[in-house]
């Protein structure tokens, strides 16, 4: 924006819009509005007579600024707070997960930690609902509890292919524990795996079902006589983040939950951990295990459907030998892994990430990925696009970063596609003091 003096008033060049004959007060007003609104208007020329009244000029200008601002807002991220530490009787909220219900509601899940922000303790899984694409959120609802111990790692996923449930059936997979993770790795306790279901979009829930013997291999007969697996799986965690159901192709209907476990005694660089998955082809009646990902130290994982009807598996690298994401590629939806690769275009500070598939208004399906774009700090939450089923990733757009203000400005996140085909990411913000929801358009992401 520039200005120059002319007879009869001031000339303003407004992003290519030449406005002549302005009173000085009008120029000051426009400066104020534009600095605060950061609008961009289309190229045109307007001649304003020197005697035109300021009020009339502003009446003509303000609608243009309003339209331009509305257009800008549709493209840039907007945030709302979903879970705030200290509210509803919980000291801390962590580990976000989010899904869209068939009726368009957004269901946001988190671990509600009653006494502190530590991973173990009195932890419940809670949920909030948005009926307006994330603009506001309803009251807190407890959906899974383990008395005074831990219920965590929520992995919600809708089964949309079961003919018995025309409106969809929501599965919530989760883990329970009675000891700290290090104690579990040392063989003093185990983590168990459960699910609950819901057929009314998160309103009411079934009794929990224990599926540990199908999806884990613990050696702890003092806990359960059936836990006599020689593999000796100890620590165990679903995702964190949403689960996956394949929607097309040969494996349509498969419910697929990314996970990780530790096996045997603790090892240096956390190499007792490895990522795996479990899946069901009969709507949760039975489950099978995928092979382990062939990378010692692979950890928290998540999956997304690829354009060929298979899936991409994306993991945290707990070993830290390479501070990048690990990806496993498969042609049969996780029954075997064809290739395991360190993704040097996905730097990571050893943290969780999220991935979804997305259909733009034009063109082929893409994959969308979120994580912290740093190798030194949980910061710079960034969302990227892949046009080739995860073989390569864009530079992406940063959602939030504040390295100078917080130790961990951003941390865990989970992605979702809204009913209006906008995108959203539910993420931990400002040293784990809140979980917020940021919504943005695909156009903003790729422009």
From TrEMBL:
A Pfam family hit: BNR_2
Domain Sialidase: 104-423
Phylogenetic placement of the source organism: Bacteria, Pseudomonadati, Bacteroidota, Cytophagia, Cytophagales
TM helices/strands, residue ranges: 12-35
EC number assigned by the record: 3.2.1.18
Protein's UniProt keywords contain Ribosomal protein: no
Record's protein name: exo-alpha-sialidase
Family to which this protein belongs: Belongs to the glycosyl hydrolase 33 family.
Organism in which the protein naturally occurs: Runella slithyformis (strain ATCC 29530 / DSM 19594 / LMG 11500 / NCIMB 11436 / LSU 4)
Any one GO molecular-function label of the UniProt entry: exo-alpha-sialidase activity
Signal peptide location: none
